[in-house]
Write a structure and sequence with these properties.
homodimer, alpha/beta, six-stranded parallel β-sheet, 12% strand
């Protein structure tokens, strides 16, 4: 186990009807805020009316910025920064999924740091101050509700890049599982895949003695899989299944599952190019990338195969006694692919109309900052090989 | 799953040599502090020298208050409060185990709230402000390093009572597993039992749909048991085993394992009378109480038996297929008792020289504030029955 620091200050307010507490919580931080959302489903469902009523009752004024899209855009972030500065706003409140929250975080950085906001995403600058950010979460997926991450897409390129700053961790996040009943199945599935990927990125580490976090990761994955199966077997409005998924999505990315270890994160990098070039949902891209990344690594050496065999046994119920390690590991990947397909996710390029001719270009882009991944450091040729596996 | 709020602001600094960061971290909060410890092993081991050197280097001044004992005493708390007030100290830094930290928390409350500190423990008053508290942990056990709890013994009585206030959660805690190598086996075992009890108090809930936290609890318990066996099989100075135990002890009590559920806590109440009257270590008392409490509940109804059967299967590897629920549940308790004995814990009154003649007195004291427990609300007669089971 390696030395670590762990601190997560986000206050989670979880459960039925909790969106009605947003005004009271917000008023502890600000009197004038930017209210940031897509302008779509949260308006139609009546959620925005409840949020605004709660803010009004608490005496909080807001300026609204709508138009957040999946793979949130830099242009909207820049608009938000201008509004926040000109209107002297004190906080950014996102209502929506990871895209709205990530966009809010980027605005929060830009509002109090001079210069081009994209410089932070290009790793030219780092930030230690931002406006407070908070969220009413509607899509369990990105874990942005209590994380230090924000991923933004620069349309010129397009480039999809992330930042990780302590100062953008939300001060509070409101999680009401009832709000997720009306999510389209595809979005529910993308979210489930995304949170599983967050855990798997942490699970696949070369650090040998991290038993507690291994156990916690495996338990969280089993819980997600079991409850995903419930939801996709028709229990769309099952509160408890939705609640397990929603809370797991936050824990997947709140930092506790990487204590004492270094995660991998190559699959996220490989997907970023996929979802940037083809505007594919992040979760769908991960469902395509992860099986290929696993198969590529299982072949690497015996220690890797053992790690994947444990994953197969503990998460997918593969009985290791009847297989050699490599076979058990591959059987685990096969069961994972079957699961992803069962919830409507693509698992190959063709399933998502991705043109394999762009593999060389994507592989070049993925190593823009150098090798990616820690479980195994991937160079351009590894990226090509993994993309090819994902296209077959 | 019931609605909940979760927020834990303690910064955990974990790993080798981390005690040398104490000055830098402390200086962010205070320039003059109360340094609170037992004056025993931390001095002999050289830890206090390192702590003081670090404080000095960071320009932090301290007043020292030593003499903390297991089951920390109210009289010392009062002494600490007087010192903190007279010397205008700004923070309390505990070096030690749960006793030192609990004592520090009580001092932190008394330093800034007028009146008799014991009134808070008698539930006559509540506190929303305290001096900042921080810790360098030497005994993984109580979880006080990131909890909102403090348990103090009033020698007149004696009464052992607890408080739970957000304002006493440590601002930071330093956890170096190397510091635990020299713990006597009995203290290591008491700590292991205590942290297991913290998880079990949360695990035994009547809330039916809390799958994620069930999985996390079970994984943490398995990790503790496996690594305790390593340490008690001679791997006393195994860093990774000590690290798993130390981190599990913090997670056991940091609040994440009770999200969405109401824990029981009757066994803690039953032990408080035992350890107050017989000055028994808290962990040892819990090793005696928990098996009896379980056996008493398994008989209650089928739903209870099912919960204990799951515990037997997931934590103790009892194969439910070969048993009926009650049998499986009892087999789990039996394996737990065997485990406690294997690490040197008492599991019956006689093992710890506890006089069963005082059962009626203890049972009366345990319901001082009303029934105890939530999994099953225990009255005086239930307490008598459980104490009797623990004495046979």
């Amino acid at each position: 186990m390696i030395n670590f620091e762990y601190c997560n200050k986000t206050k989670i307010i979880f459960g039925k009807g909790t969106e009605n507490q947003v005004g009271k919580e917000t008023a502890q931080y600000a009197k004038r805020i930017l209210l940031h959302h897509s302008g779509g489903s949260a308006v139609r469902s009546g959620l925005m009316d409840r949020v605004k009523a709660s803010l009004k009752e608490a005496g909080v004024e807001w300026v609204e910025l709508t138009g957040v899209l999946p793979n949130p855009r830099l242009s909207l972030v820049k608009e938000g920064i201008n509004i926040a500065r000109n209107e002297k706003l004190e906080m950014i409140l996102a209502v929506g999924g990871g895209s709205a929250i990530d966009s809010a975080k980027a605005i929060a950085v830009g509002a109090v740091n001079d210069g081009d906001i994209w410089d932070f995403f290009e790793r030219k600058k780092t930030a230690d101050k931002a406006l407070p950010v908070a969220a009413v979460l509607t899509i369990p997926a990105a874990g942005s509700e209590s994380s230090i991450s924000s991923v933004i897409t620069n349309e010129e390129g397009p480039w999809k890049r992330g930042i990780n700053f302590q100062c953008i961790r939300p001060v509070f996040s409101i999680l009401n599982p009832e709000l997720t009943y009306t999510l389209p199945p595809y979005q529910t599935a993308c979210g489930i895949t995304d949170m599983m990927a967050h855990i798997m990125e942490r699970y696949f580490t070369k650090e040998p003695n991290v038993e507690l976090t291994d156990e916690l990761c495996e338990g969280a994955l089993r819980t997600i899989i079991r409850n995903a199966r419930k939801i996709f077997s028709g229990a769309t409005n099952n509160y408890d299944a939705r609640a397990e998924i929603m809370w797991a999505g936050a824990i997947a990315h709140n930092g506790i599952l990487d204590t004492g270890r270094i995660g991998d994160w190559a699959s996220h990098a490989l997907d970023h190019e996929l979802s940037a070039l083809f505007d594919l949902a992040h979760g769908a891209g991960l469902a395509i990338i992860f099986p290929a990344w696993m198969k590529y690594n299982i072949k690497e050496d015996n220690a890797s195969a053992a790690r994947f065999a444990r994953f197969a046994a503990k998460v997918w119920g593969v009985d290791g006694a009847f297989y050699d390690k490599e076979q058990a590991a591959l059987e685990g990947v096969s069961r994972m692919e079957h699961f992803f397909k069962s919830i409507g996710m693509p698992v190959r390029f063709a399933d998502a109309n991705i043109n394999p001719e762009r593999i060389p270009e994507m592989a070049k882009r993925v190593v823009h900052f150098g090798t990616v991944g820690n479980f195994r450091k991937l160079e351009e040729r590894d990226a090509v090989a993994i993309y090819k596996m994902a296209s077959n």
